[in-house]
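Incident log, support desk, overnight shift.

02:14 A customer reports that sequence design results differ from what the structure should imply. Their input is reproduced verbatim below. On-call engineer (initials T.W.) acknowledged and began investigating.
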């Protein structure tokens, strides 16, 4: 099993755990993950810039965060409760190796969105094309994914669902705290996710 496939398998496992935390029987709910993908694509296009009538500079960091969010939904679409995470990871790695990219990032993103709208599917090849065109590799995806997934768990554990969670601490949003915590850690550490959670816990107001 390659390093990339191992990382994808870890992300699949984390995604299943997160979805189960939100709803124990999430498989039976028929959640429209594909819709979340195309809506995120539209939001991302605003961060990238598409208006020809005004000067716009791509907000690369925000685009990368949106791609990470899309991967959460893409993984959720692929988990079927029957296929092992190892097999799903191998298939995703293979699809992502067949990079599909159009003339520019915006056009590649539209291919990703179109698959979600027309086929209700996650187009891993187009997703890999978006990653490539924005200068993102599998390690960037893994770092961003594990960080965001851990933050989502942290939010749930601290009252996100009942509205008691505090999103801004010490003058910074939780996302900003997350970035600082992740930067201070080694992503290759097998306890990376646990250390991210610990780092957030140490900063969160008691």
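02:41 Re-run completed on a clean worker. Output:
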């Amino acid at each position: 099993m390659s390093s990339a496939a191992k990382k994808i398998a870890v992300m699949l496992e984390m995604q299943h755990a997160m979805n189960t935390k939100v709803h124990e029987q999430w498989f039976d709910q028929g959640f429209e993950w594909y819709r979340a993908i195309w809506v995120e694509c539209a939001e991302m296009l605003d961060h990238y810039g598409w208006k020809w009538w005004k000067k716009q500079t791509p907000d690369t960091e925000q685009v990368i965060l949106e791609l990470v969010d899309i991967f959460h939904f893409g993984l959720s679409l692929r988990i079927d409760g029957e296929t092992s995470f190892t097999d799903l990871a191998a298939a995703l790695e293979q699809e992502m190796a067949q990079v599909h990219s159009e003339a520019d990032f915006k056009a590649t993103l539209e291919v990703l969105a179109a698959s979600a709208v027309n086929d209700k599917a996650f187009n891993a090849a187009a997703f890999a094309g978006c990653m490539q065109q924005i200068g993102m590799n599998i390690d960037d995806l893994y770092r961003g994914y594990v960080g965001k997934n851990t933050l989502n768990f942290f939010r749930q554990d601290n009252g996100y669902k009942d509205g008691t969670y505090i999103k801004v601490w010490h003058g910074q949003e939780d996302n900003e705290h997350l970035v600082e915590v992740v930067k201070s850690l080694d992503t290759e550490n097998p306890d990376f996710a646990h250390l991210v959670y610990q780092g957030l816990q140490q900063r969160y107001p008691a």
